[in-house]
């Protein structure tokens, strides 16, 4: 068996996998709408995957890989860019 990953590498690997799963669910919503499959809507499946990413972000903070203040600063910065450069906030 290969080398055992340290905690940091394992968290980053799982985060990357979860990001890929979010991308997959986003594309299914875009392609098929909010169809139900096995009793769940596409948006419910997307929320599950987003929750998995939130868990990984929380673990990154817990193990001092990131801090929530810096994360919030970046989130605010991104929102300001979106307000300026996207159509999301237009009426």
Describe the structure.
The chain has a two-stranded antiparallel ribbon. It is flat and about 40 Å long. Helix 1 packs antiparallel against helix 2. It is built from 3 helices and 2 strands. The chain is mainly α.
Q: What descriptive keywords fit this protein?
A:
single chain, mainly alpha
Fold topology:
Blueprint: H1 7-32, E1 36-37, E2 40-41, H2 42-62, H3 68-85
Antiparallel strand pairs: 1-2
Helix pairs in contact: 1-2
Radius of gyration: 17 Å
Across the major sheet, the strand order is 1-2
* Backbone shape: flat
- Structural class call reads mainly alpha
> Counting H and I runs of at least 4 residues, what is the number of helices?
3
The residue ranges in which pLDDT falls below 50 over 5 or more consecutive positions are none
Largest sheet: 2 strands, antiparallel
Query: How much of the polypeptide forms β-strand, as a percent range?
Result: under 5%
Run of helices and strands = HEEHH
In short:
This protein is mainly α and 91 residues long. 71% of the residues lie in helices and 4% in strands.
